[in-house]
Amino acid sequence: MTHARRIISVVAMLVGAVITGSAQLQPSNPDSALVTILAQLQGTPLSLKQAIQYSMASAPTLRSAEAALDAARGIVRRESGAFDPSFSVMWDYADQKIPSASFFDGAPVLRTLQATGQAGLRWDLPTGTSIGASLNAVRLNTNSSFAFLIPQYTTFGEISIRQPLLRGFTLSARKALTGAEQDMDAARARYDQETLALSTQVEHLYWDLYAGERDYAVQKLTRDRAAAFLKDTELRAQTGLIGPNQVANARTFLAEQEILLLDREEQLDGLSDQIVAAIGARPDGGQPRFKAVDQPSDDFVIEETDALVQKAIERNLELRAAKAFIESRRTMARAASWEALPQVDFVGSIGGNGLAGTAHEVIFGADTLRTTVGGAFGDALRQAVVRDFPTWHVGLEVNIPIGFRNGLGEQDRLDAELVIAEQRYTQELRILEAEVRVSCRELEHGKRRLNAAREGVMAAQEQVRIGLIEFQNGRSTAFELVRLGADFAVAQQRYSQALVRSAKAAASLKQLTSGAYSAR
To answer: Is the pTM of this model over 0.85?
Structure first.
């Protein structure tokens, strides 16, 4: 960046003057100070794009959000399965020997061999309607002398329907699936928002690392110049130009800068460790830290604050998730209001019966009796299916709970959960608006802040230049030069913060508006 290079040049010229102590104040090469230190800084180069890619591949928060979305999809699949038809088959075989004391049982010990089969289909519809179809068959063998059919085939089939009349139809019957779908929408929005949040977090850490590197370079430069300044002061003291107190001032300043340099190095390593924790990757080849290779821009699009607030309200995925959760709670609350009513169901069915078997003569006293019924199992099955012997019924079933406490209590609970969800949404909305306005102000003031910081660096440089001239002429002390040098370092660090502050604000706006804000 041109501004950064200009400031680096100023630093190089200033510190060169402090070292040389020359009355002519010859500046050093503009790229021989901060640029050289930054180039020699140990670490694995890392671009912002690489950092974001690493974080997307391994971030626990993103994986958790993805798992929550998968869980929500699973719940939707489960609740959708409640409306899938189900087929059932049952087969039972029974062998019984029953002692008999009645002549009409047809045997002293009545033995029955009965095989029972049943096939059924059940289907619950989203309207609350329950439809069932079943076909039953019984094959009976017996040793009774009064049995006209041995074996005897009995069949019966039925199609039944049950429709709740006071349960809200789809509102109540589909509540679990509708709520699950809305919860899935919320989970999807949270996952997408977590992606943006992770990207923003990494970008913030990256620019902090960038500023930390510049701060470290400024501090190292200040320490190096303090050491050179001490040597120059000692030489002047040996010639009698200055007193020992000024040498002590220079020595104290160097000791303070050594400690501050260690602090800056630890801070830089800590910032790199935060990057490592966020992206899940470590520097290559045993390097102590990552190095930022990208530079923040100082030219961002400035949009009207109220317009950005509106974009954030419309596009923010966290708010969208909160809205979906509200709709889920509202669905449950509405269904509960219907379910608190008495249960009134319409029921009805149509069906048919069938009978067949191998006819046997029955001798009763002096009479020989025969049945006109006969046929194979298929005949009995056909009779039930085509309804040769039809059956049907209709009716109403009413269930009125005494006191209605169960249903009304559940309704009260769900109504309260709906209020809680709505109030959380309101709170999130207010926080979002405040955060957008803060970021907008930081971005709007970004250029002014950067210009002010640049002016501060230039002014501090000028103060040091003048102080050096006065020191050479005996009108200033080493203590004054030390103080001016420290002020210059602080001005440089403020410039570093001003450089990255706008970039971080732009990243935050992109997250808060869920991508609606474009920095360029």
So the answer is: no
The region, left, alpha or beta by phi > 0 then psi within -120 to 50, assigned to residue 365 is left
d(CA 291, CA 502): 20
CA-based nearest residue to 160, from 2, 11, 298, 350 = 350
Measured CA to CA, the distance from residue 8 to residue 369 in angstroms comes to 122
323 plus 409 within the same structural domain: no
Task: Tell me the two tokens of residue 144.
Answer: 């009774």
How many structural domains are present in the chain?
2
Does residue 11 sit in the same domain as residue 129? no
Give every CB contact of residue 343 below 8 A, 6+ residues apart in sequence: 164, 166, 167, 397, 398, 399, 400
Which run of H or of E encompasses 248? Answer: helix 244-279
State CA 43 to chain mean position distance: 33
- What values do phi and psi take at 175, rounded to 5? -60, -45
Cα 80 to its chain centre, rounded Å, is: 23
Q: How is residue 43 annotated by DSSP?
A: S
- Where does a domain end: 399, 415, 431? 415
- 210 part of a folded domain: yes
Q: Which helix (H) or strand (E) holds 492?
A: helix 478-512
Assess whether 216 and 363 both reside in one domain: no
373: phi then psi, degrees, rounded to nearest 5: -85, 140
| Residue 86 covered by a domain | no
Q: Which one, of 92, 97, 95, lies nearest residue 137 by Cα?
A: 92
* Closest to 126 (Cα-Cα) out of 76, 177, 173: 173
Task: Note down pLDDT in tens along the chain; length 520 residues.
Answer: 444 343 333 333 333 433 343 333 333 332 347 788 888 888 999 999 999 999 999 899 999 999 999 999 999 999 999 999 999 999 999 999 888 877 777 788 888 999 999 999 999 999 989 999 999 999 999 988 888 889 999 999 999 999 999 877 778 888 999 999 999 999 999 999 999 999 999 999 999 999 999 889 888 888 888 888 788 788 878 887 777 887 888 888 889 889 999 999 999 999 999 999 999 999 987 888 999 999 888 778 888 999 999 999 999 999 999 999 999 999 999 999 988 889 999 999 999 999 999 888 887 767 777 888 888 999 999 999 999 999 999 999 999 999 889 889 999 999 999 999 999 999 999 999 999 999 999 888 888 888 888 888 888 888 878 877 877 777 776 677 777 877 888 888 888 888 899 899 999 999 999 988 887 6
